[in-house]
């Protein structure tokens, strides 16, 4: 496999200013704070996390719609800077959450889909019109739809139009920023299936952004879980769903409704709101909501550590947390935290014996 996208230590800080005339900086929003990941050719990496954790900012940084405060983005081995930007603009496309906001309401759908080809000087007027019809077919729409306006379509159809537009210039990577979050569940599945289909046909790579894990289950090869501007766990999809290690990943998993209604509500969802990225908590940013919090978590920021093949976790206590199933049964109760203390003590005794 070859690496298509490589993101290293990407950071975006926004200064927060106060005052109108002599504005002075009163703080910094750490929207994205040292994010690294890579996407192999033909692979789907999902980024998952609650609203406000920096997913869209990460997407905009990769697309270079905004300038990073720090870090690098390499596409197909080349660092993205001024000169490389033009090829990036063609080879990386984006599909947004709200196609209605991203489609020009006054343009016929055919012109909207043809626009990126025009911008990049691809084809003639006639060949572009033919390509639009082909693209409409690829996303399950009909040639005559080219003459219609966005308001004449349903939400799911509008998202298909957005996908056709993204496909028009034959990109290698498509960034999908919550492409199905605004759609009914039944329609979500259709759009996800369409994206998977297109991936198989054209060998596409996806950076697929979602705020809940259920959506990425059918889509992702690997998952990166974000919290307050940082990646807290990244692993192959299987491991994320079968052996989640970070308490936040576990909480996101528990938030997925259980298929058996009798077991629903047994698991306590994650309490409290996401703290502000302007004043992120000290130490581990998740410590204010973590059911397993210990003193060390408040003082020392955990780094990502590889704890299983391809699975990296930023938690001081990931190895000694009680098994995920036990926690789910106990609903993240104080019992679980108590058990953690017991596990930790046992581990310390074992280490002392070995020494
Ligand atoms: P997500 O897509 O995960 O919901 P975003 O990337 O949109 O999150 O935002 C991350 C954080 O950065 C949020 O707290 C948001 O308010 C803040 N933010 C985003 N854009 C700006 C901006 N232009 N100026 C200041 N803060 C911003
Ligand atoms: Mg967003």
What does it look like?
With 355 residues, the protein is of the alpha/beta class. The chain has a single domain (1-19, 26-355), classed as P-loop containing nucleotide triphosphate hydrolases (Rossmann fold, 3-Layer(aba) Sandwich). The chain is built from 13 helices and 12 strands. Helix 4 crosses helix 5, helix 5 crosses helix 6 and helix 6 packs parallel to helix 7 (185-202). Bound molecules: adenosine-5'-diphosphate and magnesium ion. It comes from Falsiroseomonas frigidaquae. One of its GO terms (molecular function) is ATP binding. Belongs to the ABC transporter superfamily.
Task: Give a short overview.
The chain is of the alpha/beta class.
State the oligomer: single chain
Strand content: 15-25%
Determine the number of helices (DSSP H or I, runs of at least 4 residues). 13
Total domains: 1
What is the correct CATH architecture?
A: 3-Layer(aba) Sandwich
Low confidence ranges:
328-337
Radius of gyration in whole Å, from Cα? 22 Å
Task: Give the proportion of residues in helices.
Answer: 25-40%
Q: What strand order characterises the main sheet?
A: 6-7-8-3-9-10-12-11
CATH class category label = Alpha Beta
Give the full name of the CATH homologous superfamily: P-loop containing nucleotide triphosphate hydrolases
What is the N-to-C order of secondary-structure elements (H for helix, E for strand)? EEEHEEHEHHHHEHEHEEHHHEEHH
CATH-defined topology: Rossmann fold
Mean pLDDT: 88
Calculate the terminal CA-CA distance, rounded to whole Å.
Answer: 42 Å
Ligand types = adenosine-5'-diphosphate, magnesium ion
Which shape, going by the Cα principal axes? globular
Q: Which structural class is indicated by helix and strand composition?
A: alpha/beta
Number of strands: 12
